[in-house]
Design goal:
The chain is elongated, with a radius of gyration of 38 Å. It is about 25% helix and about 25% strand. It is of the alpha+beta class and about 850 residues long.
Length: about 850
C-alpha cells in the first residue's frame, strides 16, 4: 500500500513538522511494515511556475512540429517580461495556462534546466508535462491547467510535486491498512491527534428503491448496495489532484468513472465497480456460477466458470467475477453516460479461491481476501455517485438499492489483566480499555471482565489473544522487557539433536553442501520420479492455503526439492555438485479406499503450555512425520587439475554417503541390489539395518534425470534416521597396540552374485579376529570364464591381546574363504 503523506494529513491532524520518515518510524513501532519512504519531488528545484501562453510561432523545416512560444510567467523571472520557450508539444493553444520551469531550476532525476539555443531559437526554460514533473505517466502532451490558475504562482505547491510516500507491506491480518482511511487512523493513534473518518458522510433520507438487486447465496455475499447516476459528461476528465494522488499510490488514470472507483478504493478500502447502465438488463443478483457458464473479463480473456465462483449477474447472465474483475460486456467506455455503481461485501475465502482458480489477482481481490469493512458499501457507493456528480456533471438517480444477510456483532469476553499476562507487563484496566477504544472497539463492563465488540473494519479481531495484541503493539513492543530464558541445568541437547548435528557435520566434512528447501511438492513430481500408481509416496496431504498453487502438497520424500535445487545450480553453470538435506516428510495414513485421512486438529489455549493429554491429542491428529536425510550428486566427485583427471560421482558415492550417516549413528548398513523408483533399475541399492529397510541409494533413472533437467548420471540417496535405532553417544574406538596381519584373497563367483553377499560371508567366516574387509579389485575376462568375475579382497586381522601368528591369520582367512564358498559358490582363484 502506497500512502502519500499529504493524503494522510487530510484525515489525521499530524503536526506540521512530521516527515514521512518520522511517521514511518511510528507506524513500525505500532506493528506495520513500512518498507520504504519515497521522497517524491525532493530533487525538484524552482523556479517552477504557472505561465500563460501569449503567442505561438510554428517553426518549419523540421521533421516534427516545433513551436516557439512566448509565455507570461509574471514576476517569477525577476523582470516581468515574457519568456521565450521552444516546445515540441501541440496540445495547447494561446491563452492556455501551463507549467513552466525557468533556467536554474531542476526536474525529477536531477534534470537541470538552462537557457540554450535550439532549432535556431533561444529557449529560456521548458514547458512541462505531468511525466516530466513526476506526478503522472501521461506523456501525450503538455499539462494544461484550469483557467483560474494564477500566473506566476509556485507550481510546486499548487500541484503537490513534492510529497513523501510510504510504501507499506500490509500483512494479512491488517487488511484495513490497505486504505488511506486505515493508515491515517493508525497515524492519528500514534501521535495522539484527532482522526476524521472519510467514510463519515451523511446519507440522503427518504429515498425510494433503486435498481433491483438480490443475493441468491448469502454464504458468498452478505451485503450489496447499488447507486445509479446518469447524464455524465462524456468528455469529463478526472481533476489533476485526483490523478496526482492515484499516481502517487501506484495507479494510472483511465477515465473519470474508473478513477473515482479506484480513488475511493484507495481512500476507504472498499472496492467498487461501475457498470454501464445501458448494458445491464433487469435485476442484478449475486450468486454462484452455474454449470457451463462463461464470462469474458475486462482483460479480454474468456473464462470457463467454476461452480464455486461468485458472480454478479443480470437477466442475461454473468456480468463480473465478484470482487475480482468486471466483465467486458458491461464495460464503461467513452460513450457511457449512465452507470450503476456496485459496492458489496463478499466472502473473503470465496474471493481468494476464485482469484487463484483463475490466476486473476486484482487490487479489489487483494482487499477482499484480507477483509473489508462490512458497513462501508452504502457510504462508498454514495460518495462515488456524489463525486461523479461534482466532477462530471452527472445526476444522482434518487434511490438506493440494497440487499443483505444480517450479521450479528459478537462480543469477545476479555479479562482486564489478560494482556498483562501475555506480555509480562502491567498495563492496567484503564490502559486496556483506552487502547481498545482507540482502534474502534466498543468496550463494556461485564462483571469483573470486559465485553469487547470489534469494529466492522477489524474482522481480524476474533478472540482475546487478538485484543491483547492490539494493546501490546500500541503500548509499544519496546516496552516489553527482555529476559533471557533460563534452561534447566544439565539437560542440553537430546540424543536425537546430537545425532542430527553429527550427521550434518559428517556430510559437510565429506564435501556435501546443505540445502534447505520448502516442504512442498506437486503431483507432477510423482510423475517425474516415475512413481507407480498406488505408491505410498503418491499419498500426500493437500494444503488448504498453499503458498503456491504449483506446489499444493506436503512432501512425502526429500528428493524433489533437492533435485530442483541441483537443477537450478547446474543451469547456472555449477555442474559439480554434492548436496544434502535433513528434514521431515509427511506420510498420512490411508483410508479404506486408499484416500488420505485427515483428523481435525484440536486447538489448545495460548495462555499456558499444553498438557500431556493435549500434546497427545495433537500428535494423534498429525500425520506420521519421519525425519530423513538425503543427498544428490552430479558432475565430478573428485575434481580434475594439474594432478590429473578427476573422478565422476557414481552410485557408489551415494552408498558411501549412507554409510557415513550410519557411522554417526554407530551402526553398519547392509547393501543389497534392488529396483525402486526413482533409481535406475540396474544401479539401485537397498540399505538395510539388520533385516529392516532404512533407505535406498544409487543412480537415478534416465527419465527422472530428463524430467528435472539434471546432469547425466546424477545419483541420490535417501534414508530414514529413526530406523537407525536409538542414538547412542559416540565413543572413541579401541585401538590395539598389536600389529595387523593382512591377507589378500581373490574369489571367482558368478556374475550375478552380489559383492555384498560375498563380503558378508567373509565376515561371518573370519570370526572375531577380522578387523576389516575391503574390496579392492573386480576382474572379468577370459581367465575367469564367461558368466563369472573375480572379486579381490583385503582382510585385516588383529587381536586385542597378542600378536597373531601366521598360522592364526591363515586359519582365519581359510575359514572366511570356506564360508564364502559354502554360501555363494565362490572359488579361491588359483587354487
Amino acid at each position: 500500500m502506497r500512502a502519500p503523506l499529504s493524503w494522510l494529513r487530510e484525515y489525521a491532524e499530524l503536526p506540521a513538522d512530521v516527515t514521512g520518515r518520522d511517521l514511518a518510524a511510528e507506524l513500525i513501532d505500532a506493528g506495520l511494515e513500512v518498507e520504504t519512504v519515497e521522497r517524491a519531488g525532493a530533487d525538484v528545484r524552482g523556479p517552477l511556475v504557472v505561465g500563460e501562453v501569449l503567442e505561438i510561432e510554428e517553426l518549419t523545416g523540421f521533421k516534427k512540429p516545433i513551436r516557439y512560444c512566448r509565455v507570461d510567467v509574471g514576476d517569477a523571472n525577476g523582470t516581468g517580461e515574457p519568456q521565450n520557450i521552444v516546445c515540441g508539444a501541440t496540445n495547447f493553444a494561446v491563452g492556455d495556462k501551463i507549467v513552466a520551469i525557468l533556467p536554474g531550476g531542476a526536474l525529477p532525476g536531477g534534470f537541470e534546466i538552462g537557457a540554450r539555443k535550439t532549432y535556431g531559437k533561444l529557449s529560456e526554460g521548458m514547458i512541462c508535462s505531468v511525466r516530466e514533473l513526476g506526478i503522472g505517466d501521461d506523456h501525450e502532451g503538455i499539462l494544461v491547467l484550469p483557467g483560474d490558475a494564477e500566473v506566476g504562482a509556485d507550481a510546486i505547491e499548487l500541484l503537490g510535486v513534492r510529497d513523501d510516500v510510504l510504501d507499506i507491506a500490509v500483512t494479512p491480518d491488517r487488511g484495513y491498512c490497505l486504505s488511506i482511511r486505515g493508515v491515517a487512523r493508525e497515524a492519528a493513534i500514534a501521535y495522539g491527534v484527532p482522526f476524521r473518518d472519510p467514510a463519515a458522510v451523511e446519507l440522503p433520507t427518504g429515498e425510494g428503491p433503486g435498481h433491483p438487486v438480490a443475493i441468491a447465496d448469502p454464504s458468498a455475499c452478505d451485503r450489496i448496495v447499488l447507486r445509479e447516476v446518469r447524464g455524465l459528461a462524456a468528455d469529463a476528465r478526472s481533476p489533476l489532484w485526483m490523478r496526482v494522488r492515484l499516481h502517487r499510490a501506484g495507479m494510472r488514470s483511465v477515465s473519470l468513472a474508473v478513477d473515482v472507483t479506484n480513488y475511493l478504493m484507495l481512500e476507504l478500502g472498499q472496492p467498487l465497480h461501475a457498470f454501464d447502465a445501458a448494458k445491464v438488463s433487469g435485476q442484478i443478483t449475486v450468486r454462484r456460477a452455474a454449470a457451463g457458464e462463461r464470462l469474458e473479463t475486462l482483460d479480454h480473456v474468456k473464462r470457463e466458470l467454476h461452480p464455486e465462483d461468485v458472480l454478479i449477474t443480470d437477466e442475461t447472465g454473468p456480468l463480473s467475477l465478484a470482487g475480482t474483475m468486471g466483465g467486458l460486456a458491461t464495460e464503461i467506455d467513452d460513450a457511457s453516460t449512465a452507470m450503476v455503481i456496485e459496492a458489496a461485501h463478499f466472502d473473503e475465502i470465496a474471493v481468494a479461491r476464485m482469484a487463484r482458480r483463475h490466476k486473476l489477482h486484482s487490487e479489489a481481490s487483494y482487499r477482499f481476501e484480507r477483509g473489508v469493512d462490512r458497513e462501508l458499501p452504502r457510504y462508498a457507493a454514495y460518495r462515488a455517485a456524489r463525486l461523479l456528480a461534482e466532477l462530471g456533471g452527472a445526476e444522482i438517480v434518487p434511490g438506493e438499492s440494497s440487499a443483505e444477510s444480517p450479521v450479528a456483532a459478537a462480543a469477545i469476553p476479555l479479562a482486564p489483566d489478560y494482556p498483562d499476562r501475555v506480555a509480562g507487563v502491567a498495563y492496567g484496566r484503564e490502559t486496556v480499555v483506552r487502547r481498545l477504544e482507540q482502534v474502534g472497539c466498543a468496550v463494556a463492563a461485564d462483571g469483573d471482565a470486559l465485553a469487547v465488540t470489534p469494529p466492522s473494519w477489524r474482522p481480524d479481531l476474533t478472540d482475546p489473544a487478538d485484543l491483547a495484541e492490539e494493546v501490546i503493539r500500541l503500548e509499544g513492543y519496546s516496552a516489553i522487557p527482555s529476559r533471557a530464558p533460563r534452561p534447566a541445568a544439565g539437560q542440553g541437547l537430546t540424543p536425537v539433536q546430537r545425532l542430527r548435528r553429527r550427521v550434518g557435520r559428517a556430510l559437510a566434512g565429506a564435501g556435501y553442501v546443505e540445502a534447505i528447501n520448502f516442504p512442498f511438492a506437486a503431483e507432477k513430481d510423482w510423475d517425474a520420479l516415475q512413481l507407480p500408481a498406488g505408491d505410498p509416496r503418491r499419498r500426500a496431504l493437500r494444503l488448504a492455503n498453499p503458498l503456491s498453487e504449483d506446489e499444493p502438497l506436503l512432501r512425502t520424500t526429500l528428493l524433489p526439492g533437492l533435485l530442483k535445487t541441483l537443477a537450478r545450480n547446474a543451469g547456472r553453470g555449477f555442474g559439480d555438485l554434492a548436496l544434502f538435506e535433513r528434514g521431515v516428510v509427511f506420510r498420512p495414513d490411508a483410508g479404506a479406499d486408499g484416500s488420505v485421512e485427515v483428523t481435525a486438529t484440536p486447538r489448545p489455549p495460548v495462555d499456558r503450555g499444553p498438557s500431556a493429554g493435549e500434546v497427545a491429542s495433537l500428535n494423534a491428529a498429525l500425520p506420521d512425520q519421519p525425519e530423513r536425510v538425503a543427498v544428490v550428486l552430479a558432475g565430478e566427485r573428485e575434481p580434475s587439475g594439474w594432478w590429473g583427471r578427476g573422478r565422476p560421482a557414481t552410485w557408489a558415492d551415494a552408498i558411501e554417503a549412507a554409510r557415513t550417516v550410519a557411522r554417526e549413528a554407530g551402526v553398519e548398513l547392509r547393501v543389497a541390489a534392488d529396483r525402486h523408483e526413482p533409481w535406475h533399475p540396474g544401479r539401485c541399492a537397498a540399505l538395510y539395518l539388520g533385516d529392516e529397510l532404512v533407505g535406498h541409494a544409487g543412480e537415478l533413472h534416465p527419465r527422472t534425470i530428463k524430467a528435472y533437467g539434471l546432469p547425466p548420471r546424477t545419483c541420490a540417496m535417501e534414508l530414514e534416521l529413526r530406523r537407525l535405532g536409538e542414538p547412542a553417544a559416540p565413543r572413541a574406538p579401541h585401538v590395539s597396540t598389536y600389529p595387523v596381519a593382512t591377507q589378500d584373497v581373490a574369489l571367482t563367483v558368478g556374475a550375478d552374485v552380489p559383492a555384498a553377499e560375498v563380503e558378508a560371508a567373509l565376515r561371518d567366516g573370519a570370526g572375531e579376529l577380522l578387523e576389516s574387509v575391503r574390496l579392492f579389485d573386480v576382474y572379468t575376462g577370459e581367465q575367469v570364464g564367461e558368466g563369472h568375475r573375480s572379486l579381490a579382497y583385503t582382510l585385516r586381522f588383529r587381536a586385542a591381546d597378542r600378536t597373531l601368528t601366521a598360522e592364526e591369520s591363515g586359519a582365519a582367512r581359510d575359514a572366511a574363504v570356506a564360508a564364502a564358498a559354502e554360501r555363494t559358490g565362490a572359488v579361491l582363484r588359483g587354487a
